[in-house]
Design brief:
Layout (H helix, E strand, L loop, with lengths): L3 H6 L5 E8 L2 E8 L12 E2 L4 H15 L14 H4 L11 H5 L10 H7 L11 H6 L17 H15 L3 H10 L17 E3 L2 E3 L8 H4 L2 E2 L1 H12 L5 H9 L16 E2 L10 E7 L4 E7 L4 E7 L8 H12 L6
Antiparallel strand pairs: 1-2, 1-10, 3-6, 4-5, 7-8, 8-9, 9-10
Length: 329
């Protein structure tokens, strides 16, 4: 396996942990300031937008229960005072549009971007009312459903799923996905996290306010590899079916398609659904997860410096992922 790129990435990221899954076995290593940690598999990290994958699986699970429909318009689950100002249901984005980033929403509403400037924990002050107030008569699904990445859209989805089930989003994810899969260190708590850095300055973890469904989970290498195993070999029952459904192609083209929360990576001669991935980032953390269901391999990695659009962690992780041997199972 080619671990060498993490050594180079550690010149820009103080501490890195990377884990692989091959033939049912996990291997994990630390780099930089974490190179000498005895067991890096259980270090806790902000995983940022990898949370969106869990939100997509929750949508799939709730659709299989009949609690929501994948093509339900968003207005079906908003408060009545918000529903009256939305366009007709057939013009509204659907739940799958939110999970697949084809609802036409920007990454964040422009007024929020202005509000967040200079804040070390930018989403902390967001309330559920802020989420609803960003909707209105102009909330119309685009005619061409091209993916346009939106933290707001996935955050909104979390609130809609919570209202549909009558249970807050955080509890739904914990009770229906995290606990049944045995992810004992995956939650929304901010205690015990690897210290993050914005540049050279320590920076606090993000709390995400009312956009928890977009990025608020914390996890470990051990838990994300356990999650990858469940995606490759889903358990019996509704949760296993939801893990499969979330990894199917739902939106976008075949090259840059989207599952429910997952990005799909198309390779020559192979179905796009065989490799699903997501990365994440806050001011103090970068994360990466890629799963290949055909080769039964996965890579999970983390770094304690926030990313730019493309991080050195991503490059090293894709290099490692593509070098993994095919499973012998």
């Amino acid at each position: 396996m080619d671990w060498s790129r993490y050594e180079r990435a550690a010149r820009r990221i103080p501490g890195i942990v990377a884990a692989t899954l091959v033939d049912g076995q996990m291997e994990c290593r630390g780099f930089g300031t974490l190179a000498e940690v005895p067991d890096p598999t259980h270090l806790r990290w902000e995983i940022g937008s990898i949370t969106k994958v869990f939100t997509g699986v929750l949508l799939a699970e709730m659709s299989l229960r009949g609690e929501v429909g994948l093509d339900d318009p968003i207005g079906r689950y908003v408060p009545p005072d918000v529903a009256v100002r939305l366009p007709a249901p057939e013009q509204q984005p659907t739940l799958t549009d939110l999970a697949g980033h084809t609802a036409g929403f920007p990454r964040l509403p422009l007024t929020w971007v202005r509000r967040f400037r200079g804040m070390s924990d930018p989403y902390a002050t967001l309330t559920e009312r802020d989420v609803w107030e960003a909707l209105g008569p102009a909330t119309i699904r685009p005619r061409r459903r091209r993916p346009r990445y939106s933290n707001y859209g996935t955050g909104l989805l979390g609130h809609l799923l919570g209202r549909a089930a009558g249970i807050p989003y955080q509890h739904l994810v914990s009770e229906r996905i995290v606990a049944p899969l045995g992810l004992t260190s995956t939650d929304f708590a901010s205690n015990g996290l690897v210290e993050g850095y914005k540049g050279r300055t320590p920076t606090p973890p993000w709390t995400f306010g009312a956009l928890q469904a977009a990025g608020a989970l914390r996890s470990t290498a051990a838990d994300l590899i356990t999650f990858a195993v469940a995606c490759i070999d889903p358990p019996e029952g509704q949760l296993g079916d939801a893990l499969r459904l979330a990894r199917q192609h739902h939106r976008g083209g075949r090259v840059n398609g989207m599952g429910l929360g997952w990005h799909l990576r198309a390779l020559p001669g192979r179905p796009a659904e065989s490799t699903t991935w997501h990365n994440g980032g806050t001011y103090g953390a970068a994360s990466f997860l890629a799963v290949d269901s055909e080769q039964q391999t996965a890579v999970a990695s983390f770094g304690n410096r926030g990313p730019r659009l493309i991080t050195p962690l991503d490059g090293a992780s894709w290099k490692l992922f593509d070098s993994l041997p095919r499973s012998m199972r």
